[in-house]
């Protein structure tokens, strides 16, 4: 355990920071700040994503699936842990991680769309393993990524999420963890046995409900103490650079915890979200990249910030707080609204974790599918093992598993971000094509596979258009009528 922690500290405390912030900054500069240039456009694409295109999953459903994974325990327990160990300044570095991560997310999800494959059932499958194989022609690298994806999300994170929710319910209601673990396994089994469509249907309902309810309650705390918000935001910024005396000794911890918990919360650059981004039926790959960059914004700048302000405005938190992130968030809300705040956090966390485990199970299936194919026996065996892990994880001390998951998560980021850096020219070609069509007046750009014949595309996923020039000409001709 000692050597595992040393390796974890080096990888997630040093290597991960360089990878996420360094390469994320490179993608930001190379794309001319795509996440800033397209920020207003993100809301338009989000609105357009509500329309279902064809028989496959819509862009909105893919967004809800990615938010099911991004918006999880990291937004409650992770933020609390970051503030506990790194002080208020950790929140600032979570913002920095998310800002550059939006560019990383744009490219990884765009490339997942470019290299996606039709699965023969009217749906698509894709992700980093597919753009590594078909974009870089490095199947060995894709196999390594898929193995890491299966171990990290399919096994380790499933156990961790189960532990988090069952112990939260035990603290709030006194429910024995072994029984809540079994109940959780049964409920999850009923959903994921129906495959990606049923997971998407459940996410469509639960993700907006859990997100809006949590934001509403935290906003109530923020609004009731609005006069303290400017000073709290100033404390966050000053603490991030060691300028706040009470937190001056936490500068290194603020950076490390901010990046680590920020990555755990929004997953930008890890190669997880592209697996669900690839399933959407969209007109242009970059449109899904824009939507997924927006989901990073929602996860960190909105939800994580709400949690951080809840903690810092409550009056419960003080430097040197000794406790875990869940307890800190529960007690912070209870300090403002009363004891029902602890119950609310437990219920919210349960919903967050439920959809997050569904997302993790699907990612594990994606990794397994790439490694061993679509055999039903293999898939059923995996699902049965996952249900056992959920029950087991609810009753264990998972410190070792958490350290191991951090290591494999860093390895995932390493493989994925190196692949993104090697494919940046392809990503820029897709982005430039998208931007050129928008400048030409096309509200919803379309992808013409014939213009990218040098790429290893699946022509079932991306059939040829009749004439892209006709589409642009029609959009230009429609502009005067729209203005009139």
TrEMBL record:
<feature type="transmembrane region" description="Helical">
    <location>
        <begin position="12"/>
        <end position="29"/>
    </location>
</feature>
<keyword id="KW-1003">Cell membrane</keyword>
<keyword id="KW-0812">Transmembrane</keyword>
<feature type="transmembrane region" description="Helical">
    <location>
        <begin position="205"/>
        <end position="223"/>
    </location>
</feature>
<keyword id="KW-0997">Cell inner membrane</keyword>
<feature type="transmembrane region" description="Helical">
    <location>
        <begin position="375"/>
        <end position="395"/>
    </location>
</feature>
<feature type="transmembrane region" description="Helical">
    <location>
        <begin position="340"/>
        <end position="363"/>
    </location>
</feature>
<feature type="transmembrane region" description="Helical">
    <location>
        <begin position="67"/>
        <end position="86"/>
    </location>
</feature>
<feature type="transmembrane region" description="Helical">
    <location>
        <begin position="172"/>
        <end position="193"/>
    </location>
</feature>
<dbReference type="Pfam" id="PF01235">
    <property type="entry name" value="Na_Ala_symp"/>
</dbReference>
<keyword id="KW-0472">Membrane</keyword>
<dbReference type="InterPro" id="IPR001463">
    <property type="entry name" value="Na/Ala_symport"/>
</dbReference>
<keyword id="KW-0769">Symport</keyword>
<keyword id="KW-0813">Transport</keyword>
<keyword id="KW-1133">Transmembrane helix</keyword>
<feature type="transmembrane region" description="Helical">
    <location>
        <begin position="235"/>
        <end position="255"/>
    </location>
</feature>
<comment type="similarity">
    <text>Belongs to the alanine or glycine:cation symporter (AGCS) (TC 2.A.25) family.</text>
</comment>
<protein>
    <submittedName>
        <fullName>Alanine/glycine:cation symporter family protein</fullName>
    </submittedName>
</protein>
<feature type="transmembrane region" description="Helical">
    <location>
        <begin position="140"/>
        <end position="160"/>
    </location>
</feature>
<feature type="transmembrane region" description="Helical">
    <location>
        <begin position="401"/>
        <end position="424"/>
    </location>
</feature>
<feature type="transmembrane region" description="Helical">
    <location>
        <begin position="92"/>
        <end position="115"/>
    </location>
</feature>
<feature type="transmembrane region" description="Helical">
    <location>
        <begin position="296"/>
        <end position="320"/>
    </location>
</feature>
């Amino acid at each position: 355990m000692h050597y595992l922690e040393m390796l974890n500290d080096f990888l997630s405390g040093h290597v991960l920071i360089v990878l996420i912030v360094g390469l994320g900054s490179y993608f930001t500069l190379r794309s001319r700040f795509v996440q800033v240039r397209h920020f207003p456009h993100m809301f338009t694409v989000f609105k357009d994503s509500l329309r279902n295109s064809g028989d496959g999953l819509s862009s909105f459903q893919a967004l809800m699936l990615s938010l099911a994974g991004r918006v999880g325990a990291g937004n409650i327990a992770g933020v609390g842990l970051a503030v506990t160990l790194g002080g208020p300044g950790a929140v600032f570095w979570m913002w920095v991680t998310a800002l550059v991560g939006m560019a990383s997310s744009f490219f990884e999800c765009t490339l997942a769309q470019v290299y996606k494959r039709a699965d023969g059932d009217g749906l698509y499958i894709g992700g980093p393993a597919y753009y590594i194989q078909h974009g870089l022609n490095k199947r060995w690298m894709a196999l390594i990524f898929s193995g890491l994806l299966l171990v990290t999300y399919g096994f380790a994170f499933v156990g961790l999420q189960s532990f988090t929710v069952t112990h939260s319910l035990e603290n709030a209601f006194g429910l024995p963890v072994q029984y809540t673990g079994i109940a959780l396994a049964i409920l999850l089994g009923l959903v994921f046995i129906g495959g990606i469509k049923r997971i998407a249907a459940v996410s469509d309902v639960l993700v907006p409900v859990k997100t809006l309810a949590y934001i509403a309650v935290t906003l109530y705390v923020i609004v009731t103490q609005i006069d303290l918000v400017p000073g709290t935001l100033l404390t966050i910024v000053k603490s991030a650079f060691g300028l706040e005396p009470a937190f001056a000794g936490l500068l290194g911890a603020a950076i490390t915890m901010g990046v680590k918990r920020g990555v755990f919360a929004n997953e930008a650059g890890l190669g997880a979200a592209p697996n669900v981004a690839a399933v959407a039926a969209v007109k242009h790959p970059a449109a899904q990249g824009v939507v997924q960059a927006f989901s990073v914004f929602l996860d960190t700048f909105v939800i994580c910030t709400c949690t951080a302000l809840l903690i810092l405005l409550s009056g419960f938190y003080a430097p040197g707080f000794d406790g875990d992130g869940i307890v800190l968030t529960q007690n912070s809300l209870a300090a403002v609204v009363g004891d029902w705040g602890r119950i609310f956090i437990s219920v919210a966390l349960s919903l967050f974790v439920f959809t997050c485990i569904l997302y993790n199970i699907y990612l594990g299936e994606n990794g397994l599918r790439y490694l061993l194919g679509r055999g039903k026996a293999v898939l059923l065996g995996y699902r049965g093992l996952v249900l056992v892990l959920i029950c087991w994880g609810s009753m264990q001390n998972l410190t070792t598993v958490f350290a191991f998951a951090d290591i494999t998560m860093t390895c995932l980021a390493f493989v994925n971000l190196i692949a993104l850096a090697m494919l940046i020219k392809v990503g820029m070609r897709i982005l430039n094509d998208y931007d050129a069509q928008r400048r030409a007046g096309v509200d919803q750009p379309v992808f013409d596979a014939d213009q990218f014949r040098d790429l290893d595309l699946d022509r079932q996923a991306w059939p040829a258009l009749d004439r892209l020039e006709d589409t642009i000409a029609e959009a230009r001709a429609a502009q005067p009528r729209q203005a009139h």
